[in-house]
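Is this the right way to post C-alpha cells for a design question? Let me know if I should format differently. Anyway, here goes:
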C-alpha cells in the first residue's frame, strides 16, 4: 500500500517536476556553471523542508539536501550540466536554439530532476509515517568533464553513506550492470624558445615536442592492455608559421579497465612526454584535470532497483510520442543506430519497438563500455545501484542533437518520472525493510573493492575550474 502511495504521489505531482526539467533544458549550462539548475533544485528542496549544504567540495554549484536522522543514510545522486555545441529545438530537424550554444544531449536536465522528485516524494511519505534513517539528494555538477563527483568525493561528501542510487536517461529500461572505464584527463605543456622561423636553428620548438610526444603515444598503443584507450587534441600549436612556438600543449584522455591500469599507462605517457622534451631541448610540465574510477557494479542494489518495476508498471507512450521518435530516428543512418545499440550491449534487443516500455530481463554481467563517468568514484566509496529508462528512441546516441530534442520532449519527461518512481521505491524499501539488502550490498562492495580505500585520482591541491 505504501509503495502504491509513492507511485500515486509522483503521478499526481509530476507536473512540477516536468516543469523543472523543462526549465533546466531551456537554460542549458555547461560544467561548473550550472547556477540556474542548482538554484532551481535547491529552492524547491528548501521549500519542501530539506536542509541544504552548499559549496560541497568547494564547487559553488554542488549541494547536498537532506532530511531524516541516523542510519541508514541513502544517497540519491543527481546531475544537471549540459554539453557545449548541442543546442537544439524539440524538433525533428537539426535546428539550434542558440548558434553553437550548449544543449542537454545527455539528459542531465532529467537526471537531477528525477532524484529531486524521488526525495520529495519520500519526505512527504515519511512525514506521515516516520522511520529512522536519512535521505540525501546530491546535486552533482560537471559530470561531462568527469570531475564534479571526484571533487565532492575528495572532500569526503559520500563517506558516511550506506549506499547510493542513481540512473541515467537512455533508450531502454534496464539496470546498468556494465562497468565504465577508469580515466585520467591530463594536459601536457611544453616550453621552448621562440625564434624567427627563417633562423629556426636558434629556436627550440614546443610544437615539435608536442608532435613527437603524440607520435610516441601512438607507438605505445601496440604495447598496452586490451581495452586501453588513448585520445588527444593539441590545445596550443603556436601562433604563426613564421614564429618557432615557445609554448605548445596537448590534452590527453587515458582510459582503461580500472584505476591501476590507467595509473600505469599514465606513468608510461609521462616518460614519452619527457622523451619528447629531451629530444627538442624543451621543458615539460603537466596538469591533471580529472581522474575518474571505473564503475563498480553492485548486483545486490541493481536487483533491488530491478524488482521495483513490478510495483511501478510499464511506461506508457502516446501515438504522438511514437511519431516523434520515428521521425527523429529517420534522421540517423543505420550504422550509427546500430553502433549506439552495440555500445550498450543492446544489439538485437528491441528490434521491433522504438520506445520500450518494459524492463529488459536482468543480466548479472553486462561487460564494460568504453566511456567513463565520475559516478565511478562514488561506486568505490559506497555501494551504488543504477538503472536507465527510456527517454529517447532506440538507436539515438547520447551527445547528439537528436538526444537533446528527445530529452526536452514528453518522451524524456515520461522516462524521468519512471526513473523517479524506481528510485523512490528502492529507497523506501531500504529505509523500511532494507537491513539485509544493505548488509549484502556492503559485503559485495567489500569483496569487489578488496577492502582498498578510495584514493582520489586528482591531486590534493588541484582546484576545479570554477568561475569566481
Ligand atoms: Zn554525457
Ligand atoms: Zn550523462
Amino acid at each position: 500500500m505504501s509503495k502504491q502511495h509513492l507511485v500515486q504521489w509522483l503521478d499526481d505531482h509530476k507536473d512540477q517536476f516536468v516543469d523543472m526539467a523543462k526549465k533546466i533544458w531551456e537554460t542549458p549550462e555547461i560544467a561548473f556553471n550550472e547556477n540556474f539548475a542548482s538554484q532551481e533544485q535547491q529552492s524547491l528542496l528548501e521549500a519542501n523542508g530539506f536542509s541544504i549544504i552548499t559549496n560541497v567540495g568547494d564547487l559553488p554549484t554542488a549541494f547536498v539536501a537532506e532530511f531524516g536522522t541516523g542510519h541508514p543514510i541513502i544517497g540519491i545522486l543527481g546531475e544537471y550540466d549540459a554539453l557545449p555545441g548541442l543546442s537544439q529545438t524539440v524538433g525533428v530537424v537539426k535546428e539550434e536554439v542558440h548558434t553553437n550554444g550548449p544543449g542537454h544531449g545527455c539528459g542531465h536536465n532529467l537526471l537531477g530532476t528525477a532524484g529531486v522528485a524521488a526525495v520529495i516524494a519520500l519526505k512527504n511519505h515519511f512525514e506521515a509515517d516516520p522511520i529512522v534513517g536519512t535521505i540525501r539528494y546530491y546535486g552533482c555538477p560537471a559530470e561531462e568533464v568527469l570531475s564534479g563527483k571526484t571533487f565532492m568525493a575528495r572532500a569526503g561528501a559520500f563517506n558516511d553513506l550506506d549506499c547510493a542510487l542513481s540512473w541515467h536517461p537512455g533508450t531502454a529500461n534496464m539496470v546498468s550492470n556494465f562497468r565504465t572505464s577508469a580515466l585520467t584527463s591530463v594536459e601536457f605543456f611544453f616550453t621552448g624558445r621562440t625564434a624567427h622561423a627563417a633562423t629556426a636553428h636558434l629556436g627550440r620548438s614546443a610544437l615539435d615536442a608536442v608532435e613527437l610526444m603524440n607520435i610516441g603515444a601512438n607507438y605505445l598503443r601496440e604495447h598496452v592492455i586490451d581495452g586501453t584507450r588513448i585520445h588527444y587534441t593539441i590545445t596550443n600549436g603556436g601562433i604563426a608559421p613564421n614564429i618557432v612556438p615557445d609554448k605548445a600543449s596537448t590534452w590527453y584522455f587515458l582510459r582503461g579497465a580500472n584505476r591501476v591500469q590507467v595509473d600505469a599507462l599514465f606513468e608510461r605517457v609521462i616518460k614519452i612526454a619527457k622523451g619528447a622534451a629531451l629530444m627538442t631541448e624543451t621543458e615539460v610540465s603537466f596538469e591533471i584535470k580529472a581522474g575518474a574510477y571505473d564503475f563498480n557494479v553492485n548486483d545486490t542494489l541493481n536487483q533491488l532497483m530491478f524488482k521495483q518495476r513490478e510495483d511501478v508498471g510499464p511506461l506508457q507512450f502516446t501515438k504522438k510520442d511514437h511519431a516523434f521518435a520515428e521521425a527523429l530516428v529517420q534522421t540517423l543512418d543505420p550504422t550509427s543506430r546500430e553502433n549506439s545499440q552495440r555500445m550498450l550491449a543492446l544489439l538485437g534487443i528491441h528490434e521491433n519497438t522504438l520506445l520500450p516500455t518494459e524492463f529488459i530481463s536482468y543480466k548479472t554481467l553486462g561487460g564494460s563500455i568504453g566511456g567513463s563517468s565520475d559516478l565511478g568514484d562514488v561506486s568505490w566509496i559506497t555501494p551504488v545501484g543504477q538503472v536507465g529508462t527510456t527517454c529517447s528512441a532506440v538507436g539515438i546516441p547520447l551527445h547528439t542533437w537528436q538526444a537533446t530534442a528527445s530529452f526536452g520532449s514528453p518522451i524524456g519527461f515520461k522516462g524521468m518520472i519512471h526513473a523517479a518512481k524506481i528510485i523512490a521505491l528502492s529507497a523506501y524499501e531500504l529505509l523500511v525493510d532494507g537491513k539485509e539488502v544493505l548488509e549484502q550490498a556492503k559485503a559485495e562492495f567489500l569483496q569487489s573493492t578488496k577492502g582498498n580505500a578510495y584514493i582520489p585520482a586528482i591531486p590534493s591541491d588541484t582546484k576545479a575550474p570554477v568561475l569566481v
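Format looks fine. Someone answered above. Worth noting: The domain at 182-292 is CATH 3.30.70.360 (Alpha-Beta Plaits). Residues 344 and 369 are 7 Å apart (CA to CA).
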